[in-house]
Amino acid sequence: MSAMRVTGRGSRSLSARRKRKESGFTLIELIVALVILTILVGLALPIARTEAKRRKEGQLRYALSELRRALDGYKADCERGLVGPLDRRQDDDCFPMKLETLVEGIHPPNSTKTIRYLRMIPVDPITGTSEWGTRSTQDEPDSVNWGGQNIWDVYSLSQQTALNGSKYREW
User: Fold this and answer.
1) pLDDT, tens digit only, all 171 positions of the chain
2) Closest by Cα among 76, 106, 95, 168 to 135
3) What is the pLDDT of residue 72?
4) φ/ψ (deg, to 5) at 118
5) Could you say which of 18, 23, 107, 149 has the lowest number of CB atoms within 10 Å?
6) Helix (H, G, I), strand (E, B) or coil at 153
7) Other C-beta atoms within 10 Å of 134: how many?
8) Beta carbons of 129 and 101 less than 8 angstroms apart
9) Phi, psi of 49, deg, nearest 5
10) Residue 82: which residues within 8 A CB-CB, separation 6 or more?
11) Using an 8 Å Cβ cutoff, are 156 and 64 in contact?
12) Do the Cβ atoms of 170 and 64 come closer than 8 Å?
């Protein structure tokens, strides 16, 4: 008698069950993976927000330094006599009357060239506008009300608090 191989129905279903079990994730595994992913995202979001705020603060510092550098350049040129009488008043202490003057430039006497100090007024990254608070030489150093005489200093109009606890308008 020849040996006959018997394959029963039970052996096929066992093999099929093994393949099915090895081919995917169980519901518990998926839930655990989602919980871990949720925890990681929950930890990463505050870090991303802080990093975005830190980046905006760096942009604000840069914008303020550019504006102040331009104001100082204007004053230096004014004191050297490059700012003509049409570009200034006698009581302005050699500072511009408006920020736009730094973009429009000045016209030195006996010259056809224009000296510009900024290409454009920078945008305050905190408020999202190119509006800045201004102080004149006659104002108090921490004043938020511009006297209108000249522009000696600029500050952010934001009421928000920086990461270091100070107000942006105090920078």
Assistant:
1) 555 555 555 555 666 666 655 667 899 999 999 999 999 988 888 899 999 999 999 999 999 999 999 999 999 988 888 876 655 666 668 899 899 999 998 888 888 888 999 999 999 999 999 999 999 888 877 777 777 788 999 999 999 999 999 999 999
2) 95
3) 94
4) -140, 150
5) 23
6) strand
7) 25
8) no
9) -65, -45
10) 106, 108, 109, 115
11) yes
12) no
Q: How far apart are CA 135 and CA 143, in angstroms?
A: 7
Question: Whats the size of the chain, residue-wise?
Answer: 171
C-beta of residue 95 within 8 angstroms of C-beta of residue 71: yes
Q: What angle do CA 162, 129, 149 make, to 5 degrees?
A: 90
What is d(CA 86, CA 92) in angstroms, rounded to the nearest whole number? 12
Can you give the pLDDT at residue 51?
Answer: 94
Residue 135's DSSP bridge partners are 153
The first and second tokens of residue 38, run together, are: 């949720």
